[in-house]
Amino acid sequence: MKGLKPALTIVALAVCTFLTLTSCSHDAIEFVDYNAKMNQYIKNWNDSINTEIDPNHDWNTSRNVDISVLVNKEGTLRILTASAFNGTEGRVTLMSKDVEEGEIVSCTIAIPQNIDTLYSALYDADGFIDEMVLVVEGNTATANYSNLAAKLVMKSKPAVRSYNGNYWQFTDVSTLGTPATSVPSNAVHAHEGKPGIYYIEPGDSRINYYEGASTIYIKSGNYELSTSYICPASTVYLLPGANVKIKDSNFYNQSNNKIFIAEGATLDISMIGSSSQIASKVVCYGEFIGSSNMNLQLGNNALLYLNPKAKTTLKNLVLNPGSGNDAELIVDGELNVTNSLKVQSCGHFHNTGTINVGSDTQVDYGVASWINDGTYTTKNFILRCGGLDVINNCRLTVTNTFDVELGGNAQRNGFYLNANSSVTTKDLKLTTGTINMGANSLFEVTGIFYTFNTNTQYGFYGPTSGEALLKAKTVKLANNATYQKYGACYHNNLIVASDNHFAEVATDNGNYPMIYKEGNVKMYNKADSAPVVIPSYGNCNSGYNGGGGDPEPEEKMWYYYAFEDLGGIGDFDFNDVVLRASAPANGKGDIELCAAGGTLETYVYLGSTALGSGREVHDMFGVSLATMVNTRNRGEKAFIKIGEYTGTSASNLDLSIRVVNKGYSQTITTNNKNGECPLAITINGSSTHGTWKWPFERQRIDNAFPEFHTWVANKDADIDWWGNK
Q: Among 474, 510, 555, 598, which is disulfide-ready with 565 (CB 3.0 to 4.6 Å)?
């Protein structure tokens, strides 16, 4: 038989579930016809809920865990439901405490029953965080900060200058050598010669070191070199103060040469003409000056490094070495390309500075690398038929069209936004290929996202941990196609927010566009109001806070005490009185009155202490007994702080209500009897935002929360039933 055992229905129930339904400790008069009311309540429970109760049920969604944490410095210790370094909404504080160096924090805290991993975050006064994982084993969890290496200390804002490249490793420029600041004593003044160590000085107008590898020093001063030839495997140093203008590419188009431009030195290529090619390794710590009509190509084994002080302008820049060779462009300064920047074949591009491209950025074919760790602005960005490492770690702005057409390479290659980065584009075209997003990354389409996927493996991928946001004003099918089964494909932890998304149709015959979703994909119909928060990461990501979601977001956990007052004899909405207690901070927490769905005179107690200055709950809300509060939309009245508690576990407080009816009263408590039908339930808030929404008036709890039945039958069921509304 489902429900309570028959014998329990005929007992003169002085006990039923959480009740201490004997004489009230606050008033020694019992309810009139109390036994009849209780019998009717139990019958209604059996008829309505109709589920066998777990005999061990304690009607509390939290469990107590003993934690022990040894801290190694002064600060604030927080026990969290998720990592402090996620940088996004999705974690709550279960306990916080100000601590001293060497202190051992040992206490009991309440955690949601379906959580088995906690995070211990130790914040110092400057906002630095030491974080350790607390794996809950049984009812204990421990952490020892004295064993945590100092190198693991980091700011709560994760670093963004890293990328998940698997193929090309960029040259560490420091391994090539360092600029020179003076001429060595064994150097000879000569503008041409056999292999040796030479220097040139102002007045020299050409150089010609043609018979073998040499080392050349260019002293401080102004130069205009009409011709320049430097034999392969040579090294050239522009000393501080050297301002060198060259008129031909021979200065840097010999393989295996290294050219170092010291801070305070300048290499000016603006006089060469419209076309030039680099084959040497040019390491610029000073200035590298081009021109708006210069077409510069990096050829076989070439490298160009622009330091943070360099500001260079070119018309076109192409990384296109021959087959089997490589070329690298590494920018830490500012590069302006008035027309196009192309990375092709075995070209490899890495930016940590500022890039502005007037027309197209193309990653076209071969095994090219394009890595952005700085700010990059271009009119169009085209990824087509190649590119093994195409990764944005910071901010990419495309003023016109972002185009991904990878063809047969689509499943191997793709475009990556790592954690905390952002892309903003007017329009997006994604047909064959993938866009892969890290935690807290943002891809914003201010115009139209044109999609036409031919394979479910294409499309957008969110992270496997954390969340990413695709924000698009409009999503529509490319070329107005109507016959492809998969119009758009979304994967993993991805939020898709769009004002106007093409509709999925109710058919599976492959003749109509469909939206393919895999994993924890969520879709919203307003681009600016998805209930997600992406924090700002400076120049890399301006952040996003669309609002929505819970109307009262909380960073700390709240524990709710939901009571039935027997006035309705079994509507089971558990909103006659709703209280909540906050997670403790320094051993104390707040108690608030959230709702009054009953119409009987009711008072609230913590132990034997009357809360709310002893006032009746309706009176505290400023309404009459006949008025229900916060059971129509949960936002009619602000919650009211009615007291505080002392302790570290907020889910086992001795809270009770005293209900008065026709001169008689009865106390309903949370001193529950296991396995019997409840008049009160203790429910922790969501582990991602810390709050809970109780049922509306006359909305039975199992209708509001369909998985409630599973929990009734098994108190240890691994389900978040209370967040399922």
A: 598
Are residues 276 and 296 in contact, defined by beta-carbon separation less than 8 angstroms? Answer: yes
279: buried, middle or exposed (CB in 10 Å: 19+, 13-18, 0-12)? Answer: buried
- Going 620 to 650 to 723 to 461, the CA torsion angle's sign is positive
- Using CA atoms, how far residue 27 sits from 21, 22, 316, 614, 663, in Å, is 12, 11, 89, 14, 10
Task: Using alpha carbons, select from 262, 313, 277 the residue that is nearest to residue 292.
Answer: 313
How many helices (H) and strands (E) would you count in the chain? Answer: 5, 53
Given a cut of 70, whether residue 32 has pLDDT beyond it is: no
Question: What digits encode the pLDDT tens for the residues 288-327?
Answer: 888 877 788 998 889 999 988 888 888 899 988 766 688 9
Spatial distance between the Cα atoms of 354 and 297, rounded to a whole number of angstroms: 20
651 is written with which tokens? 């889910």
The partner residues of 68 in beta bridges, in order of sequence, read 106, 142
**Sheet with 140-144, edge to edge strand ranges:** 104-112, 62-70, 140-144
Region label for 466, one of left (φ > 0), alpha (ψ between -120 and 50) or beta (otherwise): left
Per-residue pLDDT, 28 = 35
Torsion (CA) 199, 203, 207, 209 in degrees, nearest 10 = -30
Structure token pair of residue 457: 């493996």
pLDDT band for position 159 (cuts 50, 70, 90): very low
Q: Which residues pair with 415 in a beta bridge?
A: 435
Banded model confidence at residue 19, pLDDT cuts 50, 70, 90: very low
Q: Which two tokens stand for residue 365?
A: 């074919």
> What was the pLDDT predicted at 126?
47
* Two structure tokens written together for 143: 């952490």
Quote the pTM value: 0.54
Gap between the Cα atoms of 64 and 584, Å rounded: 14
Please name every residue paired with 242 in a beta bridge, in sequence order, or none if there are none: 221
Contact 92, 557 (CB under 8 A): yes
Residue found under tokens 């079994």? 570
Buried residues in 336-360 as b, exposed as e (16+ CB within 10 A): bbbbbbbbbbbbbbbbbbbbbbbeb
What does the block give as tokens for 358? 């007037």
pLDDT of residue 414: 83
Distances (CA, A) of 481 to 207, 431, 513: 63, 12, 8
CA distance 566 to 306: 77
pLDDT at 33 over 50: yes
**pLDDT: is 398 or 365 the higher one?**
398
